[in-house]
Every structure is written in structure tokens, then in C-alpha cells.
Please model this.
Amino acid sequence: MSRGAPAAQQLLLDADGVLQTNPPGWVDHLRGQVEQARGQEFVDELWAAEHDAMRGRRRFVDVLREVTERWGIGDRVDELLPHWHRVEAQAGTVAVVRELREAGVPRHLVTNQNDHRAAYMRDGLGYAELFEQLFVSCELGLTKSDPGFFAEVARRLGADPGTLLLVDDSEQYVASARSAGLRGEVWCAEDGTDALRRLLAHHGLLPPQG
Model:
């Protein structure tokens, strides 16, 4: 933050790659559901079909059933659904979020998710307690690639977009937020929490780092 510039007032934090990660072998497990030579084709089709669920147009269970039936493995839906609950919260990021909570800084999760995984993240992972609000693509009807997602978040918070800082591991989503008038910084869990704290301090959400 440049000298004399106003500080950010609220944090918008991404989920995947920032607050949480998939365990090793997560995608390989999906590839392994079909013959090896076509594993990536199956995954690509599943990702493409999931877009409607991420925008709240369809339930993810229906999307998964439709895709698996096309591949002749429709009987595996109940077995595969829990796979989307296999996610690991990053202890370092969680610790920083708790530090912000103790300092009274408003914190909100902003994430592209289908309804099935979003419900688990909210309750099963305790994010509803960790954050003041969760803004999820399947509930807003928009994904973070659309600047309208961030404009809607600002509207619901009743906040000047320039007072909101997005921290996300995607340059595309940071650019989307900036085009909606928000601040944005690229950071991922692999960068380490010291780097995260420096970013937050730069925008006035944490005290200057010594």
C-alpha cells in the first residue's frame, strides 16, 4: 500500500489452492474409473459438464449421474460423490484467517463450487464459522471469471469495491476482480504464509511485518 493510500477493509479469500487443496492422486482416482487410454477424456468431459452445477443451473449429483451413465459406470455415482469431500484445509492459511478474525477484520470466502462440495465446505470443514460470509458460484449464479460475480459480492456487502481485497491463486480471477473495481493479489498456499502476511500488511489488513 503506497504512503497515504487508504487501507483495504475486508478480505475476500479463494478456496482451492489457497485455503484448501486436493490430496495427491485426486484426479488420478477419477481417471482410473475408465480404461487408462481414455482417463483424461473422461475427466475433461466431467469438468465441462460440471460448469452448469457451478453456476447453480443443475445439481451436481445429476451432472455426475449423466456423465457416468454415458461412460457405462452409472452405478458408481454413490461411490464417487464422496470423492468431492476429499479436500485438505491448509493449516497455515487457516491460522492467518483466525488471526484476522481476532483482529476484527471482516473475512469472506469467494469460490467456484458445485452445490455438493459447497455444502460440505460450509458445514463439514467449518468454513461457516471461520468466515463471516461465503459467496459461492452455485448460489450467485456466476463464476469468478465474470466481473459480475465480484460486483454482486460488493453489492451484498454494501461495500465500496475498492475496499475489498481478493487473494486468489488464479491470475484470471484476480484480473476479473480488478476490472470490477476491487483490489486483487495472486497468492497460493505453496507461496507460504509469510508472503500472505506481507500482502495483507501491504493492504493494511495486518500490521506492518517486521
